[in-house]
Each structure stands twice: as C-alpha cells, then as structure tokens.
Design goal:
Blueprint (H helix, E strand, L loop, with lengths): L28 H11 L5 E7 L4 E8 L6 H11 L1 H17 L4 H23 L7 E8 L5 H25 L5 H14 L6
Antiparallel strand pairs: 1-2, 2-3
Helix pairs in contact: 2-4, 3-4, 5-6
Length: 195
C-alpha cells in the first residue's frame, strides 16, 4: 500500500491537504473572535472613541512602530489589554481558590497570579512596547477647547490616511512598501508616548 504524499507550501501545517483544494468552510465564530481579539482590526494599531456623560468624548489613536510583525502586534495587544484580562483572571482565580484556601491566602494567591501575568505580558511585549505612539484628545460639547479640538482633528486626519491606505492596499492599488510608508509618515507625526 502506498503512503499518501505530504504536501508542503501553502498547505503547511495540514500535511494531507491538497494546496489547490478550496477551504472547506469559513472559520468558526470562536476562531474569528479570538483572531479579532488577538490581531485587532488594523495592523497599524487602533483608534477608540468613548462618549461619557456631560458631553465629554475621548478619542485615542494608538500606532505601532511601522513594520511590526504579527507576533509583536499580538504581544503588544496582550500587554495593552492586561488591565482588563488581568482583572478577569484575578476574579476567576479568586473564585476558584476561595473554595480551596482560606480567604487571606486565596486573595494573596490571586493577587500573585494577577501581578505575575502583568509582568509576563510586560516582558513579552519587549522593546516595541516603548515605541508605540499614542495621541489622545478629550473634547466637551459645552466647553470648546481649541487645543483639544485640534488634537481631535489631527486624530481624524491620521485615521483617515491609515484606513485609506489599508483599503488601497487591500484592493491592490498600492504595494506593501507604499502602505508601510504611509504608516511611517503618520507614526512620525505622533508624539512619542510614555507607554
């Protein structure tokens, strides 16, 4: 009996799948969720807007160093998200450990898990963590501050450039090098942060 040949190249990781075969199905919802959570919506970073009471709006643009690869982006997002997922980890470990240990040791162990997870996320993010550029603008409807409005407009202009570059790259109107050049131009215009 003959052995089935192992295919390489585009089917790497699936040794018995023909590289010319069409994918069987779309990724599961769980896989899409984790991929979106780890990889983010944009390779260059993120933009967030929060509306709060009393007419206050906070705008934040985060731009990773140009050329940041997938693994570095995932580690940066893991570090940036640590306050949220670290808190959830603390709660879950507290619930689990409170059934196994006395209250004081359970809190101490949960806090240790929380702090160690933050330390490891910090270390894994490495040097790119210190090169992330962030621009923030806080605007209020009742109190128009010209400086804040100017920063908000800058954020909007930068986001428009980056998203437009993403769309042009996706439709093959620009090359990867041109996309990264636009990313670099926006990155250099943002103030260096203390991240």
């Amino acid at each position: 009996m003959e052995e089935e040949p192992i295919t390489r190249g585009s089917a790497a990781g699936h040794p018995h799948r023909d590289p010319d075969a069409t994918p069987s199905a779309t990724p599961s919802a769980a896989r899409r969720f984790w991929s979106h959570l780890l990889d983010g919506e944009r390779i260059w970073g993120s933009v967030d807007t929060w509306h709060s009471r009393h007419g206050m709006t906070r705008h934040r643009l985060v731009v990773f160093p140009p050329g940041t690869n997938l693994a570095e982006r995932r580690r940066l997002r893991l570090w940036r998200g640590w306050p949220l997922w670290g808190a959830m980890l603390w709660i879950v470990s507290e619930v689990v450990l409170s059934n196994q240990l006395a209250p004081i040791p359970a809190v101490a162990a949960s806090t240790t898990v929380y702090l160690l997870s933050g330390y490891f996320a910090f270390v894994m993010a490495g040097t790119p963590r210190t090169h992330v550029r962030i621009q923030v603008a806080i605007t209020m409807t009742d109190l128009p501050d010209l400086d804040s409005l100017s920063r908000r407009d800058d954020i909007g202009r930068h986001v428009k450039l980056l998203v437009d570059a993403d769309n042009r790259f996706a439709t093959q109107h620009i090359t990867a090098a041109e996309h990264e050049l636009i990313w670099s131009e926006v990155y250099l215009q943002l103030p260096a942060g203390k991240y």
